[in-house]
Amino acid sequence: MSGILEGKRILVTGVLMESSIAFHVAKLAQEQGAEIILTAFPRPTLTERIAKKLPKPAKVIELDVTNEEHLARLADVVGEELGGLDGVVHSIGFAPQDALGGNFLNTPFESVATAMHVSAFSLKSLTMACLPLMQNGGSVVGLTFDAQYAWPQYDWMGPAKAALEATNRYMARDLGKQDIRCNLISAGPIGSMAAKSIPGFAELASVWDNRSPLEWDLNDPEPAGRGVVALLSDWFPKTTGEIIHVDGGLHAIGA
Ligand SMILES: NC(=O)c1ccc[n+]([C@@H]2O[C@H](COP(=O)([O-])OP(=O)(O)OC[C@H]3O[C@@H](n4cnc5c(N)ncnc54)[C@H](O)[C@@H]3O)[C@@H](O)[C@H]2O)c1
């Protein structure tokens, strides 16, 4: 039986640990027949070590999404390896410590700017860096944490995710003519490295214990990974500018 990503070439950012959502995206994508290439930050060696746990070997390229030189050479390096791309996964988020954990009213703009640059603007930068490789259309998928609400402790990552969600819609508007779809998975909380760097993350996650219609497992990034793979596949051919919740259904519950 062939997989839903058979023959597709996909660039996956954000593989840092086995707990990374992107690791599960990469694993599932390979299982579903895709050829993948990984990008790494802060060091390729970390990602290379985790990549050994994937079903098949995958090349790793260094990429800091805020580094213009890294972005400028990305298409050449990926092009040499895969010839082109059918999908791009943006699984990147970062905010400085003083932008998280209940310090919202005192965070300096410099820290807000960093959060926005790495977590939101980078969706556009990464996509544009990959655009020369997507001549036959493609699918760009990112990860958000529902920015319709103010959450405990999440602070300036909230506005950064709101910016990411808006960026996704504008990219859908501007890239539709090239048959490039742009969508996000809005995931529930997962105990990854990024999450653990949020002071008071447990308080945020406990909201799911009480309100999620479906049982939510903080230690299971696979459901979010499956959502990403579905959006990379040909099974959402006319869906773009969309945000699909993989959050146990919590977004639908008022109290
Ligand atoms: N963990 C959660 O609870 C949760 C929930 C919803 C959405 N998300 C989102 O999922 C995505 C992946 O996060 P994760 O939970 O797998 O955590 P993670 O820590 O495993 O992944 C975050 C990734 O961002 C990368 N990154 C940070 N700065 C970068 C830069 N300058 N250039 C390139 N890459 C950079 C890191 O290398 C890391 O791989 C993020 O967008 C995150 O906001 C996470």
Automatic annotation (TrEMBL):
Give me the residues that bind NAD(+), please.
Answer: 14, 20-21, 64-65, 92, 161, 190-194
- Protein residues bound to substrate: 95
Q: What is its EC number?
A: 1.3.1.9
Q: Which GO terms describe its biological process?
A: fatty acid biosynthetic process
Q: In which pathway does it act?
A: Lipid metabolism
Lipid biosynthesis is among the record's keywords: yes
Sorted keywords for this record are: Fatty acid biosynthesis, Fatty acid metabolism, Lipid biosynthesis, Lipid metabolism, NAD, Oxidoreductase
* Pfam families associated with the record: adh_short_C2
Q: What GO annotations for molecular function exist for this entry?
A: enoyl-[acyl-carrier-protein] reductase (NADH) activity
Q: Which reaction does it catalyse?
A: a 2,3-saturated acyl-[ACP] + NAD(+) = a (2E)-enoyl-[ACP] + NADH + H(+)
Q: Which domain of life is it from?
A: Bacteria
Family designation:
Belongs to the short-chain dehydrogenases/reductases (SDR) family. FabI subfamily.
Q: Which NCBIfam families match?
A: PRK07889.1
- Name the chain's protein: Enoyl-[acyl-carrier-protein] reductase [NADH]
